Amino acid sequence: RGQGSLAYPGLRTQGTLENLGGSNDASRGLTSLADTFEHVIEELLDEQQVIHPSKENKDADLYSSRVMLSSQVPLEPPLLFLLEEYKNYLDAANMSMRVRRHSDPARRGELSVCDSTSEWVTAAEKKTAVDMSGATVTVLEKVPVPKGQLKQYFYETKCNSKGYTKEGCRGIDKRYWNSQCRTTQSYVRALTMDNKKRVGWRFIRIDT
């Protein structure tokens, strides 16, 4: 989002940390956008093969596109998060493009089974998190870059305790069934420090 922001630093990057936030040719960045997305997908698939979440947390996904490095609070949800949401919808629809346009939930007035709220959260607000080994690590607020420091932001989604579904999932007949909306978690890569003061990029759990 303009100067001093990086979308989804959780992935492995080409080169070293010093490359983050460096000056890049704008035209080269635009022409390589498709290659960047392809690289992102390949990285996510690689991580899925070599890293496995701890068995104690079965509600956690392996990764999520919900992290950004920025000098200021992002104004919109992360781009890759929006792309994933749209792709998941298209895959679930399994229809032609013509039918998909008329099947857009916004057009049909569909509602989510559970009401939720999403917002950007800083590392200063999170302070600590649980990594993939189950250990509690400190989430570092800032990441050093050549021209200064950027803050880590996490796009978290939680059940809305004040919404209509606070007493059960929407669409469930309460006369016969009990239901509950529950916040799940995903693993994202963030700059953290363990109890031995070792700083590094680790997968941590955030609310999704």
Automatic annotation (TrEMBL):
One of its GO terms (cellular component) is extracellular space. It comes from the Eukaryota. Signal peptide: none annotated. GO terms for biological process: cell surface receptor protein tyrosine kinase signaling pathway; modulation of chemical synaptic transmission; negative regulation of neuron apoptotic process; nerve development; nerve growth factor signaling pathway; neuron projection morphogenesis. It is found in: Secreted. Residues 1-25 are annotated as: Disordered. Keywords: Cleavage on pair of basic residues, Disulfide bond, Glycoprotein, Growth factor. Residues 106-208 form the Nerve growth factor-related domain. Belongs to the NGF-beta family. Promotes the survival of neuronal populations that are all located either in the central nervous system or directly connected to it. This is Brain-derived neurotrophic factor. It comes from Zonosaurus madagascariensis. The lineage of its organism: Eukaryota, Metazoa, Chordata, Craniata, Vertebrata.
